[in-house]
Design brief:
mainly alpha, Serine Threonine Protein Phosphatase 5, Tetratricopeptide repeat, elongated, 8 helices, 131 residues
Length: 131
Amino acid sequence: MSAINWMEVFGWDKGNLEDLRFVGYAYLKQGKYDIAITLFKALIVLDPHNAYDLQTLGALFLEQGNHLLALSYLERSLKIEPNHPFALLNRSKALFGLGYKRQAMTAARSLEKNPDPRIADGAFSLILSHS
């Protein structure tokens, strides 16, 4: 049995995905995480290989404290885009949340020298708060 191409079924194109992504992001920015999660889950069904949507869904679950589900989506995202710094940082946070301190610390240390100060500072803060 082959997978259903929902984009084709709905007659959608990339523009429709971008519209849905924009709405999901707007709910995320308002702190309406349950609605944002629903929209990003729909995006994953429509475009299952989009690293951004997977990473965002992981970040949303992380924000809700569901570290296991967050890690699952972040790992899927990193299989597509292995060096995405925010996904790597959030993966470290999820690992800490699950109690995998050694793995989380290793992951955070690998980001300390990232050229993006948001990543480097975030990694440094994680290391300090878990040392």
